[in-house]
Every structure is written in C-alpha cells, then in structure tokens.
Design goal:
By secondary structure, this protein is of the alpha/beta class. It contains 17 helices and 24 strands.
Length: 716
C-alpha cells in the first residue's frame, strides 16, 4: 500500500469517526430537548386548566354560601314546603335545598330519603351545637345520585335547631375536560379524580387503545381543593386517613406530533451528516497530498545535492519562526546541514594547500559522511515505502527521527546554535459594566452548558433552581458566568472520568448561595489558602493560575464572597454568596385590564403568542389582537379608534425591530405610558431599563412569562 494511501485512509477514518460521533451526540441532545419541551408544553396547559377549575370552585362555593344565608333568613320568617324549596332553588340558581333536624334527619326538601347527615360527617353536629357556623365540601359524588358531582354548603338556622343544606351540581366537568381535549389535537383523553382515585369526570377519544400509549404519554397535575379538610370525604373513603382533599387531573397525550418532529429532525441530520462526511473526505485527500508533496520536495533536493555536490541549494521552508510543522522543521535542519557542509567544503579545498589542512579536511569529511549516509539511507527507505504495498517496521516517524538525529550530529561537528524564545505579554482588559439581572437564570445557563458537554461517565447534579427565574442581583454578567464555568471545569478535572459534581443553589433572605461540590482528590491543607492567588496553580501541567483568582474577583466585585472547603481524597466544596436585590418596580407579573378591552400583542415568537392566547382565553370578557412586527402595529395604528379600549404588550425587537422601530420607541412615539407593557429577553439592558422608568411603563421579562397573569380591574 502506498504511503499516500495510508495517510489518506488514516485522516479520513479519524474525520469520519469524529463527524459520526459528534452528529450522534448532537442528535440525541436535540431529541431529548424536543421531548422535554413537548411534555412541558402540555404540562403547563394542564396546570392552567387545574387552576381555572379551582378558581371556578371558589365561585360556586361562594354562590352556595350566599344562597344558604338567604334561605336561613327566609326560613326564620315562616314555614317552607317542598314547593317553596324548589322555587327558591330556581330563584337562587342552585340545584337543591334541604332541611334536617337536630338529629341529622332530613325533614324538608328533596333529600328526605337520603342518609342522616351526621352519618356522613360527625363534625356536622357542631352546626346544631353552636360550635360551627358553616360547613362546605369540595366537589363530591352526590349521595343520592353518585353519577352527579356537587358542592355542598351547610349552615344552621338562626336558632341552631335545624341545618340548611344547599348543593350545586357541576355537570360541566366533562364539558370542561372535553374543551381541553378539543383545544389540543394531541390530547386524546382527560380525566379528573380525587386523591383516592374516585372518578369525577372523564373524556376519552373513541376507539383508541390507551394501554398502547405508554407511560411517557401520561401527564398528571395535582391541585388542592379550596376546601381541603373534608370530614365527609374521609367518612365516604374519598381520601385516605387525614390527608387533604386533592384533585388529580390526568391527560393522555398522543406522541404523533412529537414523533413527526423527531422524524423531521432525523431527516435534517441525515443531510447534514452526509455533507460533513463528503467534506471530511475531501479535506483528507487534500491533507495527504500536501504531506506527500513536502516529503517529495525534501527527497528531490537531497538527490540533486548528492548528484551535483552543490551544497548552496536549499529546501523552501515557512518563514514563520513559531511554526510547529515537523516536516518544515526537518527541512530547516537539512538547510542548516547543507550550509554547514558548504562551509566544510570550502575548508576542505583550502586544506589541500598543506598536509595539515588535508588531514583536517579528511577528518571533517569522515565525521560528516557517517550521519549523511544514515540520512541518505533513511530517505531511500522512505522513498521505497512510498512504492511498496507494505513496509513492516518502517514509518514516517521513524524516518524523521533518524534524519533529525543525523542532522544534529553534523551540526554539532561544524557549528552548534541554539535559540530560546520566552515572551510574556499582558493586556489590560476593560472592566465589564454591571447589570441588574436574573442571576439564577444566567447561572443555570452555565450549568446546562456543562451538563451537555461532559462525558456520560461523569455525573452532574443540578438542584435548587426554580422553574421560573426570580432572583434579581446586580452583577457583571460575563465575569460571573466565566467564574462559574472555571469552577465547574476545575471540579470535573478533579473528579476524573467517573466522578460526580453537584451544583446546588438556595435563596436565604437577601443572599443567593451557590454551592459546587465534587468528590475528587481534594486540596492539601498546606496550599488551600493560596488557591485564590493570582497565577498560583497546583496539580495541572497547563494551569494558568487565573481561574479561581478571576472567580473570587468577580464574586467580590458584586459585594459577595467565596468560600472553599476541602478534604484530601474526599472532595472539595466551593460556596459563592451573591447579594440579591428586590424585584424592580418596573418588573410586573400582572397585566391589568378591564372587561371589554382588547389585548394588543406584537411579537414574532409563535410560542409567546400561544401563551398569551391561553391567558386571554382563561379570562372572560376580553379579546386579543396579534401583530408579528412592531412596524405592522405602527402602520395599523389608525385602526385603533379609541386607545381606552386597548392594552399593549410589545416585544422590544419583534422581527425587524433591531433595524426599524422597537417596542420601547413605539411606546414613546404613541405616548402609551402605563397602558403598555414591554415584553423582552433583553430585560437586563441598562439602556432599556432606564427608558422604561423614564416613560413610566412596565416590563415583563420573557423568562418570567409563565407566571404572568391577566387581572381584571373591575374584579380585583
């Protein structure tokens, strides 16, 4: 096999393996991100429905309590018959009113054949004993008709001789669940149960085998009932023991959409990998030809000198003194040898004038001939290897070694030169401007970056971060992220290929504590006090001694402190303490509106627009109008006849906003003031913050959008 073929096969094999390995890793990471985002989206949708249900429950319970108080007042003024109860139930918009005596027996209303109320809950006796003034239940199966779900409210009459029982049926459970299933095409089944598993409502897609969906397709959300301590629930075995009454929402999600997205991702990766493989083969071919060209050039020059004895010829080399090309270094050695041999040649000619000079010339020629012969033989063998299919025991590294040693011997005979370069350069870097930002978000981003790039054999645990960032602090963003990255790099180097690192955070009063713990080899006690010194390094051959020095400076700059604890052979813990700030006044988590108003959204992110649609759909009495760019909204301004009817949520840079009009400039141009909310990912830009305060408007950081709610002023 030709030597050029060997080089091509080696370089192409390495590049192809690298392309396949990196592509496979990136594909798996992308697939994992797709899956998490898919499940997270439906988790949020289900949580929104659960919260909506609990709020609706509070409204119905308030309605039932008001109805019970009306019945109590009218009952104190005269006797009621069953027709009166039916009429009053219709008048008060409830589904049933019953009266029981002091023994818990129903004496009036439509529950005369039902159980004794004291059997349902012994605590109800307190209503006739004067110990309690009211009892309410969460949504329960009706005793009389278990297929009907109802809320129950019990109050005593004014003389505490009887108990008034008002119930409101909620037949809309299945309708509400059906609406959720209809809104999301991938949701194929939704159910509502108690914490003990009693079914309160369920909607399923007909003809679908739910056992085939798998555990990954099920999403659950538990939400406590507004009346979580329910005596009747325990008696009727709707809860276990003394646990609170909880609603369990469960959705079965079809993975068709996710599988389609992953299939599209796989197709795109196939095209990318194909292109990279082709490029790697072309690069390998170019590299092999380049290496072979230099070797042939060296061989040709040596043959020419050997034939002509003209040592003034040289091999072309790179003029860069810092070049690390071994073949270029070999050519330089050859040129030095040729120059030395040319000088020796002149000396030999002069030596012929006398016997002494002849002897000296003979000795020099003898000394040079041996290493030159070795080099010539080595080059011959190298040339032979290029023509043979295989040459066991020979290779380019061995040949270059022989030639280099031979040239060194010749140079040692004629002339010995050495040069050493040691250059140190320091440049003063500008000081980074501080920012008021969400410090937990920027730290979590660094942690995620390291979690993606560490090998599978290492373990990295990240704990303590809230799902929505909420910790504000004034820091140098880049410096602090670099500090955490350097600390994590040190930790993973210390633990080795199978160690573990834990990053945990905790908010304590006005301080944010970040702990990085590893189970590595630890730091000896005699040097632990020096680890934060500039240029101090230990145990790393290429360490600069700047990582922990920079980390300490970055943390202390923002008024924080850094601590280190370590035990040899057990591990090291670094603790960063960062001062926090109160949430700025311009940052809000509520959008205030009035019934009948329209919410104007200008944003080019479909995910953001979808989130706002969900918030509007959960709020009755308001509507939404969407624009994909700030420019489009500005051009349509004449269609907004009365600004009193609108509330604006504007992205700072919607589509072409960086080149045209921005969200904040539109607020200023149209004098929107408190009527507008700036929604942006650049919430920590000091210029934007100053402008928001100047215009007396509010800002919604996009990382916090999940917790932002629409609040109606006329109901607040």
């Amino acid at each position: 096999m030709r030597f050029s073929t060997k080089i091509f096969l080696t370089t192409s094999a390495v590049s192809v393996a690298a392309v396949l390995a990196v592509s496979a890793s990136v594909y798996e990471i992308s697939k994992s991100i797709y899956t998490r985002q898919y499940h997270h989206l439906y988790q949020e949708r289900l949580e929104l429905v659960a919260r909506e249900f609990v709020e609706l429950e509070k409204v119905y319970q308030k309605l039932a309590l008001n109805a019970a108080m009306v019945v109590r007042e009218r009952f104190s003024k005269g006797h009621f018959n069953d027709q009166d109860f039916a009429r009053l139930s219709h008048e008060l918009n409830v589904d049933g009113i019953s009266i029981s005596n002091s023994r818990g027996e129903f004496v009036s209303g439509d529950y005369s054949e039902s159980k004794n109320i004291f059997d349902l809950c012994p605590a109800y006796r307190g209503l006739t004993d004067g110990k309690t003034e009211r009892e309410q239940t969460p949504l329960l199966p009706d005793v009389k008709d278990p297929s009907m779900m109802a809320w129950f409210t019990l109050v005593p009459t004014k003389d505490h001789a009887r108990v008034i029982d008002v119930r409101i049926h909620f037949a809309e459970v299945s309708q509400m669940l059906q609406r959720l299933a209809n809104d999301e095409s991938d949701i194929v089944g939704v159910s509502l149960r108690t914490s003990s598993g009693v079914l309160l409502g369920e909607v399923k897609q007909a003809g679908l085998d739910f056992s085939s969906l798998g555990a990954d397709s099920k999403i659950s959300v538990n939400v406590p009932a507004s009346v979580s301590d329910c005596c009747e629930c325990r008696v009727r075995k709707l809860v276990s023991g003394s646990e609170p009454y909880t609603y369990a929402f469960t959705a079965n999600v079809s993975l068709h959409g996710l599988n389609q997205a992953i299939a599209d991702l796989k197709s795109r990766f196939a095209w990318i990998v194909s292109f990279l493989l082709l490029a790697s083969l072309l690069v390998s071919m170019w590299v092999s030809r380049l290496l072979l060209q230099k070797i042939l050039l060296i061989r040709g020059t040596v043959d020419s000198i050997e034939a002509s004895k003209d040592f003034s010829k040289t091999i072309p080399v790179s003029s860069n003194p810092g070049s690390k090309d071994e073949l270029n270094a070999l050519a330089i050695h050859f040129n030095r040898m040729f120059a030395s041999m040319q000088n020796a040649q002149h000396e030999l000619i002069e030596a012929k004038k006398t016997e002494a000079r002849v002897a000296v010339a003979s000795q020099v020629a003898h000394d040079i001939r041996s290493p030159l012969t070795s080099m010539t033989l080595a080059l011959n063998r190298l040339q032979s290897d290029l023509k043979k299919e295989s040459a066991p025991g020979s290779g380019i590294a061995e040949m270059i070694s022989i030639l280099s040693h031979g040239i060194s011997r010749v140079n040692g005979i004629v002339k010995r030169l050495s040069k050493k370069y040691n250059q140190t350069q320091t440049d003063a870097a500008p000081v980074e401007a501080p920012r008021l930002t969400l410090v937990d978000k920027l730290l979590f981003d660094v942690a995620q970056e390291h979690a993606l790039k560490i090998p599978a054999s290492q373990k990295f645990e990240i704990t303590g971060f809230d799902a929505v960032p909420c910790v504000w602090s004034v820091v140098q963003v880049t410096e602090l992220q670099t500090a955490l990255s350097n600390i994590l790099n040190n930790a993973f180097e210390a633990v080795g290929p199978k160690g573990s690192v834990c990053l945990s955070v905790a908010l304590e009063k006005n301080q944010y504590q970040v702990s990085i713990q590893d189970n590595g080899k630890g730091i000896p006690p005699e040097i632990i006090n020096r680890v934060f010194e500039r240029e101090f390094t230990s145990g790393k051959a290429e360490g600069s001694g700047l990582g922990l020095f920079q980390a300490k400076r970055a943390v202390e700059w923002c008024g924080g402190k850094i601590k280190i604890e370590s035990k040899v052979n057990e591990g090291t813990t670094l603790i960063l303490v960062i001062p926090t700030e109160k949430r700025p006044a311009w940052c809000v988590d509520q959008v205030m509106m009035k019934t009948g108003q329209t919410l104007i959204i200008a944003d080019d992110d479909p995910t953001i627009l979808s989130a706002w649609r969900q918030k509007v759909s959960a709020t009755s009495g308001i509507s939404i109008r969407e624009f994909s760019t700030i420019q489009a909204l500005d051009e349509a301004w004449s269609s907004l006849s009365n600004l009193e009817n609108f509330v604006f949520v504007l992205d700072q840079y919607a589509s072409d906003g960086r080149e045209g009009i921005t969200g904040i400039s539109l607020i200023e141009k149209r004098s929107l003031g408190a009527r507008a909310y700036l929604s942006t990912s650049e919430f920590d830009d000091p210029a934007i913050q100053d402008k928001v305060k100047l215009l007396k408007t509010k800002m919604i950081p996009k990382p916090q959008l999940a917790v932002v709610a629409i609040v109606l002023k006329d109901e607040a």
